[in-house]
Amino acid sequence: MARKQDLEAAAVAPLFWLFALVFAAMVLSRFDGFAGQVPVQAHAALLWASFPLLLVAGALEGRITYGEHTRRMPLWMAIDSRPVRYTFALALTYFGLVALQAFDVSLGVVDPRAPAEWPATQRLVWFLGFSFGMSFANYLAAAGVLIPALRVLTAPFSRLPAPLGLGLLVALGLGLAAAAFELLAHGPQLRADVAETAARVWQPE
């Protein structure tokens, strides 16, 4: 289905700056120096809100026209709007941090979670460097997978009357959030099952 492109990037830039700030706050909430001070209910509310917010941002991005000169460019270059880039880079960073922490996965020297024995300031600098500091790499990843997927997913909703389309996107986002909570609830068990399966494959009896 062809995308409906009827928005100028400059017209929606203030809204995407707001989206970027919200996702930046979500990223900061995952720093372990802050996370313990944030109520569990607040962490849950942020995750619930993140999926509808992402879908709404995706629907708006899919309607932006970046100009004829961008049509032959790679997507990461064609998106000629800093707030749009920041929004999806930070969204991907947030979801990545949630997954890393829930499944207790380490990324080695680029893991944003610093060793627990480090001083708090040093750990915060490390976290900022490998979360916000990796924003360009995360944007490239978002442009490669996340944004194209959102364009396909949200295109049908963008052709509906605005209130209906927005309401359905929010409902879909809440459904995705519920699925994410279910997956995260079984995170440790899934990780153990994957490790056991891998051990059997690489070390058969």
Automatic annotation (TrEMBL):
Keywords: Membrane, Transmembrane, Transmembrane helix. The chain crosses the membrane at residues 7-28, 40-62, 83-103, 123-150, 162-181. The keyword Transmembrane helix applies. This is Uncharacterized protein. It comes from Nannocystis punicea.
